[in-house]
Amino acid sequence: MPEVPTTTTTTDTVTAVWREESARLVGALTRMTRDVDMAEDLAQDALVAALEAWPASGVPDNPAAWLMTTAKRRAVDTFRRADTLRRKTAELEHAAGEVSAMPDLDDQIDHIEDDVLRLVLLCCHPALTPESRAALTLRLVGGLTTVEIARGFLVPDATMGQRISRAKKTLARAGADFELPTGQERIDRLDDVMAVVYLIFNEGYAATAGEDWTRPDLAHEAIRLARLVAEVAPEEPEVHGLQALLELQASRFPARSDRDGRAVLLDDQDRSLWDELLIRRGLAALARAEALAGRGVPIGRYVLQAAIAAVHARAQTAEATDWPRIARLYDVLADAAPGPVVEVNRAVAHGRAHGPAAGLAVLDAVPADALGDSPLVPSVRGDLLTRAGEHAAAALSFDEAASRTRNADERLLLERRAAECRRHG
Fold it and tell me: How many domains does the chain contain in total?
């Protein structure tokens, strides 16, 4: 007699399948209904049906196909109840029949992957703000609940729910097209997608506010999204560069905090704790990006940043880091994707490669208000001044950075650095 799964294990299975397949499910339903709100509702109905049915009947051999069939049948029922949409009923009945006869989803993989790409691009429609794009991407593509997204961005559940709801209404008002854009529009939209995934990762890697130095769950969700984008747009070197960058940076998570949960800077990290699997995956993704670039496909900011992260990943110790190479890569990045954040990081690289005076020269060229009230500029200035032996001035810079940050762990770190400078001064 086959073992009957327990409710707990079945619920875990449903959750795992949902996280893995929700983008394909919502994407296919959006293509059929042309209504992202309805598509999400239908997908959620299928999820509820699985939670009700699978504990008793067992997990089906192809759970993804089960969810797709259930959702499409519910879509047929919905349109049957709407007399003005009989034409769509016939179309959906035909689609549902195809899925019912289909042993698995592999036969339609190209179509389904197009649906995922459509959904990813839809979530990053130019009518939406970056914050709304991030929330909608995590909701529809990542399969996260509103509560999970709100927790990741430190906002009330109701606020995040309203943000997601407004984003859907904005798409409806804008008449957002679910068809795949082409040419420059597709390139621009893919850039927006990558920017959103990178925003999500950065919020997980170094939280802008709150009590925690990092939010690994948010960062790892961004990695999953980056891998998904790389799967559906495999000929674009930048998507592989983004995946590489996130995986290489995330490999440091185990060493970024000490046993007491306090922040640990890169130079002080125990590199034996770095995640070797993520490093290997990141280097492999970078190799794919570089291979595409070798065929004449242009590369950009993510491939270059991944190449910089790879230099760190390959260094067995902090002292072995090839800072001159990193400085050269930042010089290229400054030409390819100029901006104040790049310049501040270029100042760090030049300070380590050519001495603190060289770094300060780069930093001094950054406009004072370029990053608003961010703690980045004064914290980097403090580090460079420390390396130059100007401890009193460095302490003041760290004080300024500490007063600007909204992250409790980062504030403690900056205050410790200021105190160390005063002891040396």
Answer: 1
